[in-house]
């Protein structure tokens, strides 16, 4: 009965606010196991399950989502900010069914906009002519990243430690930074490239114990992705694994994980469309910059 009431409440919330946007930020930490590939596979699985997915792609390099899919973006968010292109013109449509918004130069330009231009950009985002109900943010941690602060605009954060010691260390370091610098207190942990769930849970257990003791954060075990050569083959084909090899073990894993994301409680806040995400993104960026300049 509680599960039924939860499902009914979620269904009612979606009916009352059909424009509600779920925002999930995903990273593996510097030197961790590829979050870009994970985002592509999440997007493919979520799309297959009927979601309208938009990926925010920070990286203009070969490490980014757009490049990994073999797509050359002609424009980016900076073209929208400067009034050269409409948002719908900048967004890339992927054959697998989801959308990509390349940020590239626009990430830093956001923080330099005067208030009037910020509002104009938010209004443009409110007129997005494409259906979007799930936003995946691919953020690359490190000194070169402009986008560590968007995690404050995300409702959930997924961290992907791999099975190796360096990947686990990088993932924990990222959690520590997000906790210390952005007061993020909850994280979902998805262990990649691990054959058994028991081994994945052991890795998670160690991370959760240390994080609880030293950072006072809560970690949630989301699951694991088993080693699967079909993942690499799908990447070479520039496709999500659910599209390239629908019967592969990793494809089944991503479907289950995608369904878990869909089943997460919908955000409570009203007006959680793409324009509200952009407003929160700008605000969080300015707040972080002010804090950093003050040396807090």
Describe this structure in words.
The chain is α/β, with parallel strands linked by helices and 296 residues long. It has one domain: P-loop containing nucleotide triphosphate hydrolases (Rossmann fold). It is built from 13 helices and 8 strands. Strands 3-4-2-5-1-6-7-8 form an 8-stranded mixed β-sheet, sandwiched between helices. Helix 2 crosses helix 12 (249-263) and helix 7 packs antiparallel against helix 13 (274-294). The longest helix has 21 residues, at 274-294. The protein starts with a helix and ends with a helix.
Summarize the structure.
48% of the residues lie in helices and 14% in strands.
State the domain count. Answer: 1
The first-level CATH class name: Alpha Beta
In percent, how much strand structure appears in the residues? 5-15%
| General form | globular
Given helix and strand content, the structural type is alpha/beta
Distance between the amino and carboxyl termini: 48 Å
The percent of residues in helical segments reads 40-55%
SS summary, helix count: 13
Helix/strand layout:
Layout: H1 2-16, E1 22-27, H2 35-48, E2 53-57, H3 65-68, H4 77-81, H5 87-90, E3 92-93, E4 99-102, H6 106-109, H7 115-126, E5 134-138, E6 156-159, H8 165-182, E7 186-192, H9 197-214, E8 218-225, H10 229-236, H11 241-244, H12 249-263, H13 274-294
Parallel strand pairs: 1-5, 1-6, 2-4, 2-5, 6-7, 7-8
Antiparallel strand pairs: 3-4
Helix pairs in contact: 2-12, 7-13
């Amino acid at each position: 009965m509680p599960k039924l009431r939860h499902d009914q409440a979620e269904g009612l919330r979606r009916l009352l606010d059909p424009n509600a946007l779920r925002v999930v930020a995903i990273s593996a930490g510097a030197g961790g196991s590829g979050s870009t590939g994970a985002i592509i596979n999440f997007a493919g699985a979520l799309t297959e399950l009927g979601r309208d997915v938009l990926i925010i792609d920070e990286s203009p390099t070969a490490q980014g989502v757009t490049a990994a899919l073999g797509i050359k973006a002609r424009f980016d968010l900076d073209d929208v900010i400067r009034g050269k292109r409409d948002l719908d013109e900048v967004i890339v449509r992927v054959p697998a069914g989801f959308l990509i918004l390349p940020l590239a130069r626009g990430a830093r330009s956001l923080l330099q906009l005067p208030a009037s231009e910020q509002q104009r950009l938010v209004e443009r985002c409110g007129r997005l002519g494409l259906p979007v109900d799930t936003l995946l943010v691919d953020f690359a941690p490190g000194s070169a990243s402009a986008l560590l602060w968007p995690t404050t605009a995300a409702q959930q954060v997924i961290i992907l430690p791999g099975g190796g010691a360096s990947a686990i260390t990088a993932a924990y370091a990222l959690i520590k930074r997000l906790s210390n610098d952005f007061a993020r207190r909850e994280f979902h942990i998805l262990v990649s490239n691990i054959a058994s769930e028991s081994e994945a849970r052991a890795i998670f257990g160690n991370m959760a114990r240390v994080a609880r003791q030293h950072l006072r954060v809560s970690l949630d075990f989301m699951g694991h992705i088993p080693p699967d050569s079909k993942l690499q083959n799908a990447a070479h084909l520039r496709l999500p694994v659910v599209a390239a090899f629908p019967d592969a073990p990793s494809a089944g894993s991503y479907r289950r994980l995608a369904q878990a994301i869909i089943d997460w409680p919908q955000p409570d806040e009203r007006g959680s469309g793409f324009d509200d995400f952009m407003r929160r993104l700008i605000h969080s960026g300015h707040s972080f910059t002010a804090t950093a300049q003050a040396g807090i």
